[in-house]
Design brief:
Layout (H helix, E strand, L loop, with lengths): L1 H38 L6 H24 L12 H26 L10 H6 L5 H28 L4 H16 L4 H21 L3 H17 L1
Helix pairs in contact: 1-2, 1-5, 2-5, 3-7, 3-8, 5-6, 5-7, 5-8, 6-7, 7-8
């Protein structure tokens, strides 16, 4: 019992460490972007674009390597079994259905439009497309999934996966602070889909791929 308690506390500390590292990388990325835009009248030079792309890829690689060392991720394609492929397909379909429902609710003005807040809009003004692509399709999905699915479900609640799915979804909702009940339900549901995909496969690659597909769907629907 004592060993289990110590292991549980250790996993919580590791999860908090992953969250802190994600926060550090996110702050550094924003600072680099602010500095690049400020030094060149809001236009990034080729060297600065290369540096930010390198940073995004480097930070993503670091998080994946840490996940691999924690047995949450693996740099291979062995995860793509028939079972995992079926779960990936079904969860992706469910995720796209939820995103379509979100668009319908936005058009009916039942939930707020998911536009950026003024600070975020200012940071991402005139951002080169390559940086936006890497940030949206690589950096952000990996950072979020490593912490919320890998850290919370895979480490802290590894012996209570259903509870982990609920807690990771709830914590994400508390951080993004949805504005009304419909926002809350959609935010919780989309994160629950990602959590279930991880709980069923025990492979972090699955929710990362689903998140990337969701981002692509959102980009195409704008």
């Amino acid at each position: 019992m004592k060993n289990q308690t110590v292991e549980k506390l250790w996993n919580v500390m590791i999860c908090l460490g992953l969250g802190g590292l994600v926060l550090l990388f996110s702050v550094l990325f924003s600072m680099f972007l602010w500095a690049a835009q400020g030094n060149n009248s809001h236009n990034c030079s080729v060297i600065e674009i290369f540096a930010m792309c390198f940073f995004s890829l480097f930070a993503s690689f670091v998080m994946l390597r840490l996940s691999e060392s924690l047995k949450l991720f693996s740099f291979d394609l062995k995860f793509f079994s028939k079972k995992n492929g079926r779960i990936l397909f079904l969860c992706t379909l469910l995720m796209l259905t939820l995103l379509f429902a979100e668009i319908v609710l936005m058009n009916q003005h039942l939930i707020s439009d998911k536009t950026m807040n003024p600070l975020a809009a200012q940071v991402f003004t005139n951002v080169p497309p390559l940086i936006m692509v890497l940030f949206s399709f690589v950096f952000a999905p990996i950072m979020e999934e490593v912490v919320f699915r890998g850290g919370i479900i895979g480490l802290v609640f590894n012996d209570h996966l259903l509870l982990g799915v609920c807690m990771s979804s709830l914590i994400y909702c508390l951080l993004v602070r949805p504005e009304n009940i419909f926002d809350w339900l959609l935010c919780f549901a989309t994160n629950a889909v990602l959590g279930i995909s991880y709980a069923k496969t025990k492979r972090l690659e699955v929710p990362i791929i689903i998140k990337m597909i969701a981002v692509l769907f959102i980009a195409l629907s704008i």
